[in-house]
Structure formats: C-alpha cells, structure tokens
C-alpha cells in the first residue's frame, strides 16, 4: 500500500520544521501545516508579518530529486552571475558617460 502524497508531504514538512526547531523560537506561530509566521519590525519601524514555509517539490519522471535541486541551484547561480555582469556593464557605461560629460564641459569652458 502506497501512502498518499498529502500525507508524505505533510510528514516531510513536519520533519523539517522539527529540525529547524521553529516551534520553539520566540514569537513564531504555526499558521498552517506549511507555514510558521512571525511579526517583525522593519528598518522603517513598521510592523511586518513574515512567513517561513516549506515547499515540497513534485516528484518528476525526467529527473531525480538530487538533479532537480542541482538544476535549481545552477539556474539561480547563472541568474545571479548575469545580474552581476549587467550591473558591472551599467557601472562601466555610467563611468564612461560621466567622463564624456566632464570632457564636454571642460571643452565648453575652454571655448569661453
């Protein structure tokens, strides 16, 4: 007899929340089987509601759980590298544009 997905996922979430010992962390309250919540103060002094949840990935026929996790990590890292590259390119362009503006300003002053 195979145990249902709902029961299996619930068991996984319970094990993870137990490992995190989140139920014993001050101010965390169980919201539902998938989430715990806490009220925190942000840097603006506003009270905010934050949730910690466990998402159990679907089983796949085309890849193992290990492969799925590795794939998601690789995707995230690739996106972060691309983001850093774009930021560096924007910073380089901004520096070049600033140098051009300053050179044009200096040339304009010389012409006066």
Describe this structure in words.
The protein is of the alpha+beta class. It is 56% helix and 16% strand. It folds into 2 domains: 1-56, no CATH class; 62-112. A 3-stranded antiparallel β-sheet has the order 1-2-3, with no helix packed on it. The longest helix has 47 residues, at 65-111.
**How do the SSEs run, as a string of H and E?**
HEEEH
Number of domains: 2
Q: What is the approximate shape?
A: elongated
* End-to-end C-alpha gap: 91 Å
Number of helices: 2
**What value does the average pLDDT take?**
92
**Strand order of the main beta sheet, please?**
1-2-3
Structural class: alpha+beta
Largest sheet: 3 strands, antiparallel
Strand content: 15-25%
Q: Percentage of helical residues? A: 55-70%
Which runs of at least 5 residues are low in confidence (pLDDT < 50)? none
Number of strands: 3
Cα-atom Rg, whole angstroms?
A: 25 Å
Brief description of this entry?
The chain is built from two helices and three strands. The protein has about 110 residues and is an alpha+beta fold. It folds into two domains: about 1-55, no CATH class; about 60-110.
């Amino acid at each position: 007899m195979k145990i249902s997905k709902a029961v299996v996922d619930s068991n996984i979430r319970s094990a993870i929340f137990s490992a995190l010992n989140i139920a014993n962390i001050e101010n965390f309250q169980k919201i539902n089987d998938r989430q715990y919540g806490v009220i925190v103060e942000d840097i603006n002094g506003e009270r905010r509601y934050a949730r910690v949840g466990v998402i159990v990935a679907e089983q796949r026929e085309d890849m193992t759980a290990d492969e799925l996790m590795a794939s998601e990590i690789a995707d995230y890292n690739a996106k972060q590298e691309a983001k850093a590259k774009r930021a560096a390119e924007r910073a380089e362009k901004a520096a070049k544009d600033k140098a051009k503006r300053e050179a044009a300003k200096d040339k304009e002053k010389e012409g006066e």
